[in-house]
Design brief:
408 residues, Rossmann fold, Chorismate Mutase Domain, subunit A, 3 domains, 13 helices
């Protein structure tokens, strides 16, 4: 546990507990560890509303938490029917936990992923043809990507197997609930789990797959380091935009070039995943030929030997936030408290800011920049030179592209 907090232990630590064996073991282990470090525990269960048993499982965790003297909250998520259900549920779960952590001012939220989860994920991604990043072991610590909160998530159990954790629970007499969906072979992960015993006969057991995933993690980190060296030569950060000198990229290895472009797109758009490799390769060919493109929520404009990357204004059309809250997952606007105001993209309101050219920022950047509105009246546009007492800052998770490249 201590390795996850090498400098200062958490004051307030969240634990995501579903009621399954892994997360119940995590809760009990942290309940023993936290008092030795002066940390206060809080527990959350996310009810996705997809199974009738979910409410009973949340109640089970609530009772367990009460017995341990720990606060418990049930967080509810509802699927809107769009997209892949499992992917949507995962995103919704992390969003709910991030917002919960922000409300309670938690330093971190602990998750119950184990060595078995690493092995299963490795097999699933290998089957999909993933490269180094996809095959790398899941991070032991990572920042959340939800605009409603910038929680830090930690995975203390990556070095432990599911069987060992259940043996621990049996030994101390603590019960857990088995999710019936974990036996549903319609899900790829369940099929991967069932394949593991057969693969173990070939030497591909959980430990061996974890070793390989760890080596892929080291390779990913080394590639990110090399891409950061390339960024030092090629990338200039200006407010929330990036300008990339194409000459250093043209002579760099293809993997580093596409890795840098992918990170730049994610840094600007806040997208949790990188674009498909084929789309990145096509993007590079297009911008080398002088073509402007939109990809991954970004506008890419080549010129003067470089490539300017800005947020695509079309991706922000209906995006609003309260003053002081994160807007577009990266901007925070601070200023006078005027009732009824909201934060939205400046858009065509740029025409109401006569001095915007004096900022030196391109029009496409300013159109996508945060502005303060009261109904349809423009109150302030801090990045466009109409401050009116407001300032706009990138969030700590997005204020340094190089650091983002190294950590994502």
């Amino acid at each position: 546990m201590d390795a996850l907090w090498p400098d200062i232990p958490p004051r307030k630590l969240g634990v995501a507990v579903s009621g399954g064996g892994d997360s119940v073991a995590l809760l009990k282990l942290l309940h023993s560890w936290a008092p030795t470090r002066g940390a206060l525990l809080h527990v959350a269960t996310v009810d996705h509303g997809l199974r009738a048993e979910a409410a009973e499982e949340a109640a089970f965790v609530a009772d367990l938490s009460r017995d341990l003297g720990v606060r418990h909250d049930t967080l509810r998520w509802a699927w809107d029917g769009n997209g892949n259900l499992q992917a949507a549920a995962r995103a919704g779960r992390y969003a709910a936990l991030s917002q919960w952590a922000a409300r309670l001012d938690l330093d971190s939220v602990a998750l119950g992923h184990t060595a078995d989860d690493v092995a299963e994920t490795f097999l699933l991604r290998l089957a999909r043809g993933s490269g180094v990043d996809g095959l790398a072991r899941m991070r032991a610590s990572f920042a959340g990507e939800d605009p409603g909160g910038d929680a830090r998530f930690v995975r203390p159990l990556l070095g432990l197997g599911r069987g060992a954790l259940r043996s621990y629970l049996d030994r101390i007499g603590l019960q857990w609930i088995d999710d019936p969906s974990n036996e549903d072979t319609r899900f790829d992960r369940v099929r991967a789990r069932r394949a593991l015993p057969l693969l173990a006969e070939l030497g591909l057991d959980v430990d061996r797959l974890n070793d390989t995933a760890h080596r892929m993690e080291e390779a990913r980190d080394a590639l990110n380091w090399a891409a950061a060296q390339l960024a030092d030569r090629a990338v200039t950060q200006q407010a929330g935009d990036l300008r990339i000198d194409l000459a250093p990229l043209a002579t760099a290895p293809r993997e580093l070039r596409l890795r840098l472009l992918s990170s730049a797109l994610r840094w600007i758009s806040g997208a949790p995943y990188r674009p498909r490799l084929s789309r990145l390769a096509a993007l590079w060919e297009a911008v080398q030929g002088g073509e402007a493109r939109q990809l991954h929520g970004c506008q890419l404009t080549p010129g003067d030997g470089g490539l300017c990357l800005s947020r695509d204004p079309a991706a922000l059309r209906d995006l609003r936030a309260e003053p002081g809250a994160l807007w577009d997952g990266r901007w925070q606007v601070i200023g006078p408290d005027i009732p009824g105001t909201h934060i939205a993209a400046l858009g065509e309101g740029l025409g109401r800011v006569p001095g915007w050219r004096d900022t030196g920022l391109p029009r496409v950047s300013l159109v996508a920049s945060p502005a303060v509105w009261w109904e349809d009246r423009l109150i302030a546009a801090p990045l466009a030179g109409m401050a009116a007492g407001y300032t706009a800052h990138l969030s700590p998770m997005r204020d340094n592209f190089r650091q983002f490249l190294l950590s994502h």
